[in-house]
Amino acid sequence: MGGGLISGVLVDGNGDFNGSLFSCFAPFPIMWGLTSIFLFATYGALYLNIRVPLLSQQQLLPLLQKLQQRALRLWIPSFVLFGIMSLWTLFTYLREHSLILLAIITVVALILMLITRMHMRKGHELLAFFCWAMFLLVVVALFLGFIFPYLAPPSLTIFNASSSEKTLTTMLFIVLLAFPAVIVYTVWIYRVFTKRISVKEGGRI
Length: 205
What we know:
- By secondary structure, the chain is mainly α.
- The chain contains seven helices and no strands.
- Helix 2 packs antiparallel against helix 3, helix 3 (about 60-90) packs antiparallel against helix 4 (about 100-120) and helix 4 (about 100-120) runs antiparallel to helix 5 (about 125-145).
């Protein structure tokens, strides 16, 4: 989605959408989607590292080492993909933006990735998790810098941006049916992930 926002939306002279479903599957947004998968997979792996209780780390040492190795392996494609996509974005979709400002934000993001790697190697799980969280915030700032002020063309209005009445009605029923399931799932996930990994459960992961 972020890649699609940066590359823009095809509209005609009246501000109406002039693309198709396949215009969303261009190489640029697909590659940004793949990059996002690795970035958040690494974030999830770092989160699992800090869920191992400190008092049980000796009993869970094999599990902790396995989680650390997974995080380190995920970091490599995350760093490579983010570096490639950042350069691709800077030199293709710069428009009237400030190259220096966006380049500085990109460098800060890469430095945070390297600092995270350093803490991962030293076994500082909490610091690595915190640095990666800061990195993701910098990535969001980078996206905002690229799409501002081109998120929507000036000719776009609420009338030609909205879906048809039939589509809105269909989406209303979908939301009414799916919303309770989303609430139940969110509560269940929250309860599961607030618990630390116990020695008893250590062999299950």
